[in-house]
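User: Here's a chain of 440 residues. Predict its fold as tokens.
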Amino acid sequence: MKRRTLLTAPLAFAATRAGAVEKTRIVWWHAMTAALAEEIGRIADGFNASQDQVEIQAIYKGGYADTLTATIAASRAGQAPHLVQVFEVGTGTMLAAGKAVKPVWELAKETGLTIDPKAYIPAVRGYYSLTDGRMASMPFNSSTAVMWYNKDAFRKAGLDPDKAPATWQEVRKAAETIKAKDAAPVAMTTSWPVWIQLEQYSALHNLPFATKSDGFDGLDAELVFNTKPHVKHIERLLEMSKNASFKYAGRDTAPDPLIVSGEAAISFGSSSSRGNLVKSAKFDWGEAYLPFDPEIIKQPENSIIGGASLWIMTAPDRTPAEYRAVAEFLKYIGKPEVDSTWSQKTGYVPVTFAGYELSKQQGYYTKNVGADIPVEQLARGSLTPNTRGLRLGRLPEIRNIIQEELEKALQGGQSAQQALDVAVTRGNKVLREFAKAVKA
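Assistant: Prediction complete.
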């Protein structure tokens, strides 16, 4: 016990001092920085002030990958925090962690915590739930991908600034017009190329990214994003790259500055970029739904989420009182007023219908035109085996593999079909290795 206390001083639990029972203290590891970290602090302070039985301590543990790595190490040492924020692509890894985690549904059963999965936006709860609907982790900061566009550049190109292109055919035509009219230095770009141009594209068009319901139904899932519709879309991007109506500007968020600075006329990125645009953009901009291909689907399905959820961790000497304390905190962050405030302050979407409705009643979406698009895009259609998200082990590694092959194609080293074929083969090898390690 002495060693445990020395290693993790913040993990002090209910104890007596001068005859009085102290608060039950719980530790929450997160990956938020700057303004987002401030909002995390406000949530923790708000919860602590709302009652006198529990005290939560929010601790920054580095970026998403660093936080997950630290959590795994702490868990193996029996020193895991009570709660940890894990990015959505780490969901498969956490589900394979066995007794190291306590699923939300199990916590609810043990503590009497009432959590109605139907209170959460389907695309959000679906990502973090088992196939039978039981929630494994607590939705927290969720975003999705949207299309950002420069209305000033549209005007300069003779395009309607109040009518964003809705289909990929319209997007391509607009980008080529912008390029021809020299209306912007960059006609079109995309952040998160794999997440948006393959994962989101698959969901919107109800196409499988992998077998076994995109991995939800078993560890023996195989990648299948090398089908004709996927190849056709990548070919479109390659053709647009050749005529300079599309600019590849790097992985992940590297292209974000192009839209914020006004250099790009059209950009695809996270809906959480709204805060940066509000704060820094010096031009008239708009937010729109992700485009779809009507030759594949007449009405697009829901997009899938990015962001992170909160996982409950176990430890050898963790007490029922601590789990009850965690349950109280999860109940708190699920309140409409907490959900809506977090959303409005950060740019993430509200994860509950009640939080969304409260923001609506408060006039937030009227004052911030387009801010409701991510929610509407996530909530439309009906969840299918292809639109819940991805439940694949070592997904960050697989994304890097896909990115490598796409970059080779963009450099003229291989065709779209070859790029996706090789990425599928390499990615499936990673999945087999992950499955073998989990079963060992």
